[in-house]
Design a protein that fits this description.
The chain has 13 helices and no strands. It has 312 residues and is mainly alpha-helical. It is globular, with a radius of gyration of 21 Å. 39% of the residues are buried. About 4% of the residues have low confidence.
Length: 312
């Protein structure tokens, strides 16, 4: 039987206290940033301004069909229309994901001291995500497009994931949902080809999501050191499966017939598009580099991430 000496126990206690102190310091900094740099989209954005004729709703290079034979046959007007519907589909996906995230955050803090900075920041992030979901919903309505829910299968997979997810698994999924879209939005908000309202929405989201990413990264790094081995392995597998689900959900097939395109042909061309694969891998690279560094991308999980198309 392996015994733990008093010195080893003391060292373990010091490490745990150090991690708690670090967690609180990060949360305090994020709370201070939230106080200075948070936005009310209802007041910050001009929702009544008319949409600008000829402006895109998403940078053309990020539209799913960009560079495909079908894209070459489309008129400029139809390309912009597709960007309009894909922006609405991404906003719809964002709402789905943020509702999941809010539930995971509430579960994360359920048994933690409500007076801690770590919990207070989690509650602050939930406030942010509520505003973001309302902002995305208002954007969809203002764009004059349908709301594009994820498929029934993905709805049910989301329910399953929320039920079985571990704490490190939850934070891995959080980063997956935030960082790929964040990369796209960082290209969108300074792009003068894009509608001013879209640029305003993405600017708000980028500023506030930067704090969420920091919070999730710091906690996941700690969790991948302190969590039991079974939890770490489970996180590797479930994160890979969620990456596969997320990469499929990133394109909503319903947008194609809504803009007059053949759905089957469009999906086939997107799957064959080298440009689209590069966009998704580039968007995920900062995240996959981080996950690789902290030991998430190993074994079966790594193979699932490759199957998702987000990892080369």
């Amino acid at each position: 039987m392996t015994t733990v000496t008093d010195a080893e126990a003391l060292e373990g206690l010091r490490d745990a206290l150090g991690q708690l102190k670090d967690r609180e310091q990060v949360a305090e900094r994020l709370l201070a940033s939230s106080a200075k740099h948070s936005f009310d989209p209802d007041k910050e954005l001009d929702w009544d301004a008319p949409l600008v004729e000829g402006k895109w709703f998403w940078p053309p290079e990020l539209v799913s069909l960009y560079g495909t034979p079908m894209w070459q046959r489309m008129s400029e007007e139809q390309r912009i229309l597709l960007s309009r519907h894909e922006a609405a589909a991404l906003a719809s996906l964002g709402i789905w994901f943020e509702v999941i995230l809010m539930q995971l955050l509430v579960r994360h803090i359920y048994d933690k001291a409500a007076t801690s900075a770590h919990v207070r920041y989690a509650l602050t992030e939930i406030e942010d995500e509520c505003r973001h979901s309302k902002m995305f919903a208002r954007l969809i309505s203002r764009s004059g497009t349908p709301y594009y829910p994820v498929s029934r299968l993905h709805q049910n997979l989301g329910r399953l994931f929320k039920t079985i997810s571990t704490t490190p698994g939850s934070f891995t999924a959080t980063l997956l949902g935030e960082e790929v879209l964040d990369w796209m939005q960082r290209l969108t908000f300074p792009d003068e080809r894009v509608q001013p309202l879209i640029r305003g929405v993405t600017r708000i989201h980028v500023v506030e999501e930067a704090r969420h990413v920091r919070y999730a990264r710091e906690e996941l790094r700690r969790q991948m050191v302190t969590a039991p081995r079974w939890s770490q392995e489970f996180t590797r597998v479930t994160s890979g499966e969620f990456a596969r689900v997320f990469s499929v959900a990133f394109i909503n097939p319903a947008v194609y017939p809504d803009v007059g395109l053949d759905q089957r042909e469009a999906l086939a061309q997107v799957r064959a598009s080298g440009h689209r694969r590069e966009v998704m891998r580039t968007g995920a690279k900062r995240l996959t580099d981080f996950l690789d560094d902290i030991g998430v991308l190993r074994g079966v999980g790594r193979r699932l991430w490759r199957a998702s198309g987000l990892l080369a």
